[in-house]
Amino acid sequence: MASIAFLRGALVVLVAGASAPAFAGGFSRGTADTDILYEDAAAAVRTGVTYVVPSSTYSTIAGARAHDDAFSNNYFVPSFAAKIRLHDSFSCAATYAQPFGASATFGDQAQAADFAATRNATINSKFLTHEYGATCAGKFAAGMGNAYLIGGVFLQTFDYDEPTTLGKLHLEDDSAFGYRLGAAYEIPEYALRAQVLYRSEVEHKGDGYFALSNVGAAFFRLPAGFSAPVTGGGRLPKSLEVSLETGIAEGWLAYGSVKWTDWSVLPQLNYNIAGIGPQQKNFNFRDGWTIEGGVAHAFTDKVAGTIGLTWDRGVGTGADLINDTWTISTGTQIKAGPGAFRVGAGLSYMTAGTQSLAKGGSFDATSNGDWAVGLSTSYLIKF
């Protein structure tokens, strides 16, 4: 199984983020690269980026055929991880990730329907989180292999911008904390590793401002340019993932995972505008499930490849168009220079769905299903 060792960590980053419509919910994007803790080196650094091109469109809006362009915006998801071995059986890693985010720009037809239903149409919306983490793993011999105990903490920031007909909302939180815990077991002889990893829920309590537009100033009978302080927030979900990989033949590795994400913890975003009153944006999510499986193969001592299939259960319940997604992905790793270069691609199909005012949506709309494409690359150096 010597060539199998080369496949470890070579699995392409599957672009689940490509399957999430960029505004209404299901905001998962990147994950912290804690797998670097398993790299067999005194120190290692891995950096990468994924570029996602979602194409979320409406088929009908307020019962009429939709003519707007796709409302989802393209986006990048960067990642960084640096690991150091402090002892033969103890390593720590510093990581950066963008775990949650969304970005959308709505066309004239969607804005008209939104304004007719709520008297305040969303023009565009952007939401992003940054995670700065430190995670450690202790290793000890157990039976035929090694067992690991994993633990760490992270700081997560939250930034939300939403220009609307009445004005611009900005809400942010610069310091919310969470933790991750896990355990793993591996038998190197068989290239087998099983892992369970838990990431905690994070509660954000932010502040910001709401700046009235000219329309908003006239509506509220306040001076043009009026800006009011805003407070508010919400919870971003905890998750639990179980993963398994094992050698199945010389140079071949099979892998799979099941992940549960507690999206039902975010029924809405609640905030209060001073002088105007409490507001909310509905999501009404249900919990998410993601199931992934695939195989990887070492073609030579320097080149490996992988192909995988992922199913993600949509978290939407009618307030948006977050429906089931199927993603097929492929990638390769090539030893180049002092490290290893990886590149991958994914194609996602987002199934059809319906949103409605009756279920918390901003307006009635349908989608017949859409496609998304993601490209990823990373480079690993070990010392």
Largest beta sheet: what is the strand line-up?
A: 1-4-5-7-8-9-10-13-14-17-18-19-20-23
What kind of sheet is the major sheet? 14 strands, antiparallel, barrel
**Which residues sit in consecutive blocks of at least 5 with pLDDT less than 50?**
9-25
How confident overall, as mean pLDDT? 90
Strand content: over 45%
Task: Write a structural description.
With about 375 residues, this protein is mainly beta. The chain has a 14-stranded antiparallel barrel. A 4-stranded antiparallel sheet has the order 3-2-22-21. It has helices at about 5, 110-120, 215-220, and strands spanning about 45-55, 60, 65, 75-85, 90-95, 100-105, 125-140, 145-165, 165-185, 190-200, 200-210, 225-235, 240-250, 250-260, 270-275, 275-280, 290-300, 305-310, 325-335, 340-350, 355, 365, 370-380. The longest helix has 11 residues, at about 110-120. A hairpin with a 2-residue loop joins strand 4 and strand 5. Residues about 10-25 have low confidence and may be disordered.
